[in-house]
Specification:
Length: 707
């Protein structure tokens, strides 16, 4: 049967326990596979058959959540069934759980009023009624989960505790606990909503409308409907509605919403601009290059959303722990209830009460939410500053980094080399030398190739062009096979006539290429690529973090030393792509290695490193390659990435300590009878809220600042 990948927006999820319930319920449905549920994006995705989709939606609704087919970042409560569900941005008092708080609070207040004004029996009945009204929707969700094979849920424990309290005559406490539980769920929802704001803020960066030029007039259209090739006008102070190229105008463009770069860049005709950027001081006419779904900002949003579904190893461990922990708590509560009365003659009412308190304390919500809340906050904080990480596993690996390996061209250097010297062989003119080189390099996107093409004024006609990884390129130019390679390779092929000139240029810190026909040298071309302004500072910051650095380059040893020496890092030169992979393996023997490249070359090394990081101004390749991307082309963002990851892991450790510490304390006090049902539910809710608020602190972190 035909299967498709589909997405839904789910409303009403406010803790990690919610995602677990939805995942386990949906996983049991025939025709449903590869289920992924994200709390922070409120998204469910799964591979489903046509007849399984309605059953999936019905299963989610039976658990008490709203579900709607996903149509984009703005997708909210319409589910197609005629019902409205809680919108992501709805105030708490308009949500289902918020209305339950108001209802249970009102009924509880009325019960207290009845107790004060009437006899004890009538007041007791009022509290019983308040408890039953409040616990009814909770019990309905508990039974729905039970029918789907999930007996150990917080709703189930809550229902059990409330009914048990009624059974032993603690109606007033039962009603109060039900009310406090409802309040806790609302607080958890509010905290989770704040954690989601980072992603929604990214989506809000793109303007809702665009001014499109058509036949000399302007027409306002929704930004999502702008098409490739159209011309849009962006006035001073307006946000750019789509990725494109400036056609007319010259002015500053604030790219901080997209790349985190705080200083506006001057953009003129021919320059690329990103959707979400702001034209600061000039009107710009921009040709649209990408539709709304393919812009750099849209890709960043998708990356952050998908990254939150990529679970960290610590999160998976805690999830497995919680599956054992919940049944264990229920078993422990049963022992607390049964053993003292049966073995030691204790009072049943006393030990039932303590066992019920133990049930409420045992809920693992705070523990389970401790990791995803911190990861989501770290991902959002990084995205706002041009640091994109693809999931919790990447954050954990980056936090453990002990060595960073840098590619040279386009990473430690600006990536914009220029031709500095032409040394043609006797009988060959500079024009002939450049013409052959431009033919060979005509189809290449390598920075050295672009520099040669710029100097030559464009490509020369050629056929059968192909790259020689780690060596250069070859093509047929003017009917003869020609090569542009390193001097070492040219010497082996009989294409180098002046080794001394090549050595002299390399000693000056320049990259040298040899141009030749079959055993017929044509000459040398020398190029220079300067180190980035912040490279030395980035290396210094890494050292301060206890992280060592090495430069890996295919360039010659002299040029490598000229770049690496002033930056204060070691260098390994003359490396082919497979040599870089070997170097990464060697470095990995001493600890986790982060590899920084330009997202175009060195794919094997990037993939083999503990963390592969692409540096590339928001290009498609930089966003799609490796485990993380740095959008600002700053070497100092490498230590910033490590600082952010270490802060996230520190936050996770704090959260786990808070969750387990509070549980341990109140488990003991509940068994000893020091604390009762009220405190039990307050401790459970309080731990969840504390953990979430602690994770939200990461949203305010600026990892690019050194404290």
């Amino acid at each position: 049967m035909h299967e498709t990948r589909r997405e839904w927006t789910i409303s009403g999820m406010d803790c990690a326990g919610c995602t677990q319930k939805v995942t386990r319920a949906v996983d049991r449905i025939a025709g449903v596979a590869d289920v992924r549920v994200s709390l922070m994006t409120q998204r469910l995705s799964a591979t489903v058959t046509r007849d399984a989709a309605p059953r999936l939606e019905e299963a989610v609704r039976r658990l008490g959540y709203g579900i709607a087919a996903h149509t984009g970042m703005a997708a909210q409560g319409e589910c197609g069934c005629g019902h409205d569900h809680d919108a992501t941005d709805a105030p708490w008092y308009r949500t289902g759980k918020g209305r339950l708080v108001l209802l249970t609070g009102g009924v509880l207040a009325l019960a207290w009023a009845v107790r004060i004004a009437t006899t004890g029996s009538l007041g007791y009945a009022a509290f019983v009624l308040a408890c039953l009204i409040g616990v009814a929707p909770v019990a309905r969700r508990a039974f729905a989960a039970l029918r789907m094979g999930q007996p150990f849920t917080i709703e189930g424990l809550m229902t059990l505790a409330a009914m048990g309290a009624l059974a032993i005559g603690a109606a007033e406490e039962a009603a109060a606990v039900v009310f406090l539980f409802a309040v806790g769920e609302v607080l958890e929802g509010v905290a989770a909503g704040r954690a989601r704001q980072g992603i929604r803020a990214l989506a809000d960066l793109v303007p809702k409308t665009a001014q499109v030029e058509e036949n000399g007039t302007l027409r306002t259209v929704p930004a999502a409907q702008v098409r490739v090739g159209q011309i849009v006008l962006v006035r001073p102070g307006d946000r750019i509605p789509a990725d494109g190229t400036v056609q007319d105008g010259l002015g500053g463009v604030d790219e901080s919403p997209v790349t985190g770069e705080s200083v506006p860049r001057v953009k003129g005709a021919g320059d690329a601009v990103h959707a979400g950027s702001i034209s600061t001081d000039a009107a710009l006419r921009i040709r649209v290059d990408k539709e709304a779904a393919d812009t750099t900002l849209a890709r960043i949003i998708r990356l952050v959303e998908e990254a939150q579904e990529a679970r960290a190893p610590t999160e998976r461990v805690l999830d497995r722990f919680s599956r054992v922990y919940m049944p264990g708590i229920v078993g422990l509560a049963a022992l607390v209830i049964l053993i003292p009365p049966l073995v030691f003659g204790g009072m049943w009412e006393t030990w039932i009460y303590r066992g019920l308190a133990l049930l409420l304390i045992g809920c693992p919500c705070a523990l389970v939410i401790s990791v995803p809340a911190a990861i989501a906050s770290a991902l959002s904080a990084g995205a706002r500053r041009g640091l994109l990480l693809k999931g919790g596993a990447v954050i954990e690996a980056a936090a453990r980094t002990r060595h960073v390996a840098f590619d040279k061209t386009g990473t430690l250097t600006r990536g914009t080399p220029v031709v500095t010297d032409l040394v043609p062989t006797a009988g060959v003119t500079e024009a002939e030398l450049m013409s052959v080189a431009a033919g060979v390099e005509g189809g290449s996107s390598h920075p050295l190739a672009r520099a040669i093409l710029t100097r030559a004024g464009g490509a020369t006609p050629a056929i059968d062009a192909r790259a020689l990884p780690g060596r250069g390129a070859q093509a047929q130019v003017g009917g003869r096979m020609a090569w542009v390679t390193s001097p070492a390779h040219a010497a082996q092929a009989g294409g180098l006539s002046d080794p001394a000139a090549a050595a002299r240029l390399e000693a000056a810190g320049k990259t040298v290429v040899a141009v030749f026909h079959d055993r017929a040298p044509l000459g040398l071309i020398a190029l220079r690529d300067e180190a980035r302004e912040d490279s030395a500072e980035g290396i210094r910051q890494l050292a301060a973090l206890g992280v060592s650095a090495t430069m890996l380059t295919g360039d010659n040893a002299r040029t490598a030393a000229a770049i690496a020496g002033p930056l204060g890092l070691s260098a390994r030169a003359g490396l082919l792509p497979e040599d870089k992979l070997t170097a990464i393996r060697t470095l990995s023997a001493t600890g986790p290695v982060m590899m920084i490249g330009d997202g175009i070359n060195d794919a094997p090394a990037l993939k083999h490193a503990s963390v592969g990081v692409a540096m590339g101004s928001g290009t498609d390749i930089a966003l799609d390659t490796a485990d993380a991307a740095l959008l600002r082309d700053r070497v100092t963002d490498v230590p910033a990435l490590i600082r952010l990851s270490r802060a996230a892991m520190g936050n996770i450790r704090q959260n786990i300590t808070i969750a387990l510490g509070l549980k341990a304390v109140f488990l003991v006090t509940s068994v000893l009878g020091v604390t009762g049902l009220w405190i039990a539910i307050l401790a459970d809710t309080g731990a969840t809220v504390l953990v979430t608020l602690n994770a939200l602190r990461l949203l305010r972190m600026d990892p690019t600042r050194i404290r």
